[in-house]
Description:
The complex is a heterodimer. By secondary structure, chain A is an alpha+beta fold. Chain A folds into 2 domains: 8-52, no CATH class; 105-239, 3-Layer(aba) Sandwich (Protein Transport Mog1p, Chain A), CATH 3.40.1000. Chain A contains 8 helices and 7 strands. Chain A has a 7-stranded antiparallel β-sheet with strand order 1-2-3-4-7-6-5, sandwiched between helices. In chain A, β6 and β7 form a beta hairpin. Chain B is mainly alpha-helical. Chain B has 2 domains: 13-95, RNA polymerase sigma factor, region 2, helix turn helix motif (Rna Polymerase Sigma Factor, Chain: A); 119-204, Winged helix-like DNA-binding domain superfamily/Winged helix DNA-binding domain (Arc Repressor Mutant, subunit A, Orthogonal Bundle). Chain B contains 9 helices and no strands. The longest helix of chain B has 21 residues, at 97-117. In chain B, 47% of the residues are buried. The interface between A and B is large, with 62 and 81 residues. Chain B: Residues 140-189 form the RNA polymerase sigma factor 70 region 4 type domain. Chain B: Belongs to the sigma-70 factor family. ECF subfamily. Chain B: One of its GO terms (biological process) is DNA-templated transcription initiation. Chain B: Keywords: Sigma factor, Transcription, Transcription regulation. Chain B: Residues 1-22 are annotated as: Disordered.
Amino acid sequence: MDCRRSGDVPLYFDGELDPAATREFERHLDDCDECRATLVGLDALRRDVRAAMPRVGAPAALRERLLALAAPARRRHWPAIAAAAAVAFAVGAVATSVWRTREATRDALARDLFASHWRSLAATSPVDVVSSDRHTVKPWFAGKVAQAPLVRDFAADGYALVGGRVDYVGDARVPVLVYRHGQHLIDVFVLGDADAAAVAPTSRRGYTLDPLVLGHQPAAVVSDLDAEELARFAAQLAAAEP
Amino acid sequence: MPVLSWKDAATPGHGAGPPGDDRAAGIGELALRHLDAAYNLGRWLLGNEQDAADAVHDAFLRATASGGSRVDGNPRAWWLAIVRNCCLARLAVHGRERRNVALDQVAAEHGRDAADAVVPPLDEPIEERLEHEQRRALVRHHLARLPPEFREVLLLRELEALSYREIADVLDLPIGTVMSRLARGRAALQKAINPAANEVDDGL
């Protein structure tokens, strides 16, 4: 592996070179046995992987289900008489579908929050930055999420800051602050307004999800605290000053 | 820039009125256009077809509900990132250990499918057919044993033909990390399936 251009072979193979660089590299390939051999190897590997893992088409049933969901509710120009009769029905249908969408969003959000908490409990460490020092945790979030959360330690009140991590909720990256109370780990997710609006108190397998406020930021907490401990913690968070 | 922008997190997703409707319809079309990619991604992350279909369904609801306010880069990567997140959420709920066996299950199903569905040409000698199936089994075996972070990049590139940029956006990684994982994944797999040709793959 002596050719200094060998690093360009995968770029060429993967179509990542621009047209001029591609033509230039092809001229190089004409003269370089080594790069040609590497290219042949990459091509053989791709064929092997594709043969071993054939792609399949999505099932027609799934496609139809999604098509039905996607069908845009186009406004129809009903004849005047039919319109009057349709109004009552339409109002009901729209209300139902809005309600269903909201419910689906809320379920998806709750699932993400619980999943993130359980995943962190099962992981080697529930945090990506370990620190009880808010001056370490806060800068760690800078650059990872657009808005660094308010980081406060409530160790004096029995809720010690353990650290923080970044996780996905839906398709948004959110900061998660991790606190410890006795043997309990508590995740505080700092959410955007849209997501926060969809958080409803929920419990699953002994864990609860509750909306609360961290200083002025909307947040959600997932933990296995009992109601009294949680209320105390929520009061601490709400009272946190920027 | 990652496709998934959290800056817009506060933007209300459910647009009322015509512009929101059109955008939601556009997202539906986008998702349906890349449905096969989404479904295959789900299949090899989750290991079975029912879970894959359910995860894609979840992702579809989530993508359309978001109103597309966060699509500010490559739309396909944005959609596949949502699909992947839905798959990972499912895995987290169903147990972490499944992630590691998922590929073996897919592989087993593939093996069956290949045996059932691919009618080999009659003039192909039986030894050759066996040889091909053994080769596929060997590749699946070593693919399943690659570290997951290499395998994911490798499959997104070789099967879904995503560009480096798209893979970086789906996995929310820097593009340099994608390139090095792809190179290392390829080198490791080449070495494993072609033990005789070790000198070809270093430096990739």
